[in-house]
Amino acid sequence: MPRDLRPKQTDGHQSRGTFVLFAGLAVLLLLIAAGCSTTPDQEPIIINGTVVAPVPTLDPARVALGEQVYAQYCATCHGADLEGSPNWRQPYPDGSYPPPPQDSSGHSWHHPDDLLLEIIAGGGDPTIGGTMPGFAEALSREEMEAVLAFIKSRWGPEERAFQWWASESR
Ligand code: HEC
Questions:
Q1: CB 150 within 8 A of CB 70
Q2: Ligand 1: distance of its center to the CA of 135 in Å?
Q3: Closest atom, ligand 1, to C-alpha of 106
Q4: Helix, strand or coil for residue 113?
Q5: Residue 124 and residue 139 in contact, taking contact as beta carbons nearer than 8 Å
Q6: Atom number of ligand 1 nearest to Cα 135
Q7: Which phi and psi (to 5°) does residue 16 adopt?
Q8: Is 115 exposed, middle or buried (0-12, 13-18, 19+ CB in 10 A)?
Q9: What is the CATH number of domain 52-168?
Q10: What SS3 state is found at 158?
């Protein structure tokens, strides 16, 4: 504590000066500490007045597993770099859509976890022209959650915060 570091006082004037100096230092340290503890990652997410917990850190081991799953099962369609098909917003003549990007430029991050896991497990909805195959047979629940964690690791902080909020506020 700063008080312990204060040199022995010789006269009143010096004491006051020393006190002001150390009080100033203490305030500065408090401000630095406050600044560190409110990095954006640790703030609650508030959208439309609904508050959810701060965005959790992704587990690196899970992300690493997800990266392998992605390369093996998803990259052929969604792109090695998650970039999706060029012109992915343009439907094919049969009305189905090309694979969308899985990075921040796509729209996966608009959807909550349960919907994304449902799509990964069950594939696209054929009644609305969906053509993505389902992976419930090929992948375990852990692998599907891991591939989602990997995809999340590639979103920007805003997309990640929004999708976390969308998942938590349901
Ligand atoms: C054969 C191509 C193909 C493969 C392989 C594939 N997808 Fe898809 N995916 C699509 C298409 C096409 C869509 C758009 C919806 C539709 O047509 O079903 C899509 C949509 C999605 C969506 C919907 C959310 C969105 O709007 O972007 C997610 C999430 C997704 N894919 C994740 C994955 C993951 C994870 C894998 C690997 C486990 C995977 N996909 C493998 C073609 C594929």
A1: yes
A2: 10
A3: 27
A4: helix
A5: no
A6: 38
A7: -60, -40
A8: middle
A9: 1.10.760.10
A10: helix
